[in-house]
Write a structure and sequence with these properties.
Length: 493
């Protein structure tokens, strides 16, 4: 595969390549360019050079490229689905769902072309007005993770391009091929040279350089909190605007009057979707003590039915890489060592030899009543969930809010008192009541605390890519009276 710099598909400056492994069997899947600082500079120069012309096109014209790319993706969607299965290990239905999401997002953002508005504000007199224009920032860097490698790319580049910014994409080193496939569709759609670029390579090598580049005005990044914090420090060099979508630790609360079947269906989705590798994954299960035993028994029974293995024929595929698998092994081992009880799973599954080197882990349910434990405090990001019984609304709210992250949360109850107490007091960017996620294009995906800042989706997400410029105008044509300037000075003028 190649990087896209100034409209050309190129190798890295020094031709270095990195390996990408297949999560299903641990074998090398392919190679991609290890971009260098020189590649970043060339991509930024091209993005800066093409900005004025792209901005002058106007949003309606720009949206046509997004519609066209959407049509091309839709027409070839099977290819993208297979790539997601191969590169990420997604199971078929989830790959299809992600591609649906990509198409939906491109459509949603393109439709916004005629909805971008500014304000005309009264000035300090009848003949004074203030025009508040929304203008693009300039060069945007979009840094994406591997867990939704197509959806995240679409959700960043479409609003950035629509609003008149030019974009350089830096995809995850775990999913460069999916990113390349999508960028190629924008190129086929005729996107002008330089307007969209893509640089691949180690975030640890080129990340600092790209986010601290003096010509970059906005960085939109989805990934871990640690990386987000580093980006924040480095980007301060230029005061670049930041949109940071970082870690999550969703509480999943089942009250005593919940519709148990709906709660279970949603929990299976919220925990084992994408093998638990989702920022909105249920990570902490709080079940009312009156139904705890019944609910957990049913949860175990349903979980036992999940087939883990080949993504083409299973309910749950592998983790993304060996590091993620080892981290899960260690997390579960430490949990057991510190007194947690494994109710189901807790090890790598026994699969046939074709998959023995793959990064598979069993869906795992652990009982633990220590809110301060790693299981309840740190992001798990694998198919492991910790459960504890709860009893009071106030106490449950405190437990739910007791997290350094604040992205998604889930509540199952028919009780209006519980619903409104949670809706009013939960300190999370998203609360799903009696339903699963994921977030919709027309919702604003945002989080509290270490989940980051800014958000994506809805008009608020689009406005993140627009800066407000104020133009003051006086149109009476009369001589100005400026209170702090002496008029006598101007008698002979
Ligand atoms: P990550 O390791 O932080 O990587 C994310 C991206 O940042 C990758 O493209 C990575 O490149 C790049 N990067 C690494 N170091 C960098 C640096 N110093 N400067 C600039 N970029 C750098 O995260 P991940 O493992 O891919 O994703 C999992 C995390 O994302 C989880 O914490 C999850 O909760 C979060 N997430 C959040 C949301 C949300 O909406 N809030 C959605 C999805 C995922 P390389 O791959 O080359 O290292």
């Amino acid at each position: 595969m190649k990087m896209l710099i100034n409209g050309e598909w190129v190798a890295a400056n020094d031709n270095e390549k990195l390996k990408k492994y297949n999560p299903v069997n641990g074998k090398v899947l392919g190679y991609f360019p290890a971009g260098k600082k020189e590649d970043v500079n060339a991509a930024v120069d091209a993005a800066e050079g093409s900005f004025d012309e792209w901005n002058q096109l106007g949003s309606s014209t720009r949206s046509k490229y997004i519609y066209k790319a959407k049509d091309l993706i839709e027409a070839n969607r099977k290819e993208l689905e297979e790539l997601l299965i191969l590169e990420n290990g997604k199971v078929v239905r989830q790959a299809e769902e992600e591609v649906d999401g990509v198409i939906d997002q491109l459509q949603y953002y393109a439709e916004f072309a005629r909805k971008i508005t500014g304000d005309l504000v009264e000035g300090t007199s009848a003949t004074r007005k203030i025009f508040q224009y929304k203008i693009p920032y300039g060069v945007v860097v979009a840094i994406t993770p591997w867990n939704f490698p197509a959806g995240m790319v679409a959700r960043k580049i479409a609003p950035a391009l629509l609003t008149g910014n030019t974009v350089i994409l830096k995809p995850s080193s775990d999913t460069p091929f999916t990113a390349e496939w999508i960028v190629r569709k924008f190129v086929e759609a005729g996107i002008p040279r330089g307007v969209l670029g893509m640089v691949t390579g180690r975030g640890s090598e080129i990340g600092d350089h790209i986010v601290a580049h003096s010509k970059v005005s906005l960085i939109t990044m989805t990934g871990s909190t640690v990386t987000g914090q580093r980006i924040m420090q480095k980007a301060s060099a230029n005061m670049a605007k930041l949109i940071l979508e970082l870690g999550g630790k969703a509480p999943f609360i089942v009250w005593k009057d919940a519709n148990i079947k709906n709660a279970l269906k949603s929990l299976i989705w919220a925990k084992f979707w994408n093998s638990g590798q989702s920022c909105i994954a249920a990570e902490r299960l709080y079940v009312h003590k009156d139904i705890y035993t019944e609910f957990i028994d049913k949860f175990i029974r349903v979980t036992k039915g999940l087939k883990v293995g080949d993504p083409h024929t299973s309910d749950m595929g592998p983790l993304i890489n060996k590091g993620a698998l080892n981290a899960t092994d260690e997390l579960v081992k430490n949990a057991v060592d510190s007194g947690s009880k494994i109710l189901y799973g807790g090890k790598r599954p026994n699969l046939d030899e074709r998959y023995s080197e793959g990064y598979f882990y069993e869906p795992t349910i652990i009982e633990n009543s220590d809110q301060k434990s790693t299981l309840f405090q740190e992001e798990i990001f694998s198919p492991v969930i910790a459960a504890m019984p709860i009893s009071e609304i106030g106490e449950t709210l405190s437990l739910a809010n007791d997290s350094k992250y604040g992205l998604a949360s889930y509540l199952f109850t028919e009780n209006p008192e519980v619903i409104f107490k949670f809706a009013d007091s939960i300190r999370f960017g998203e609360l799903y009541i009696n339903m699963p996620g994921p977030e919709a294009s027309q919702g604003y995906h945002t989080g509290f605390r270490l989940t980051g800042q800014g958000g994506e989706g809805s008009k608020y997400g689009i406005e993140e890519y627009l800066k407000l410029k104020n133009v003051y105008v006086e149109y009476s044509g009369k001589e100005l009276t400026i209170p702090t300037v002496n008029d006598n000075l101007f008698k002979n003028v």
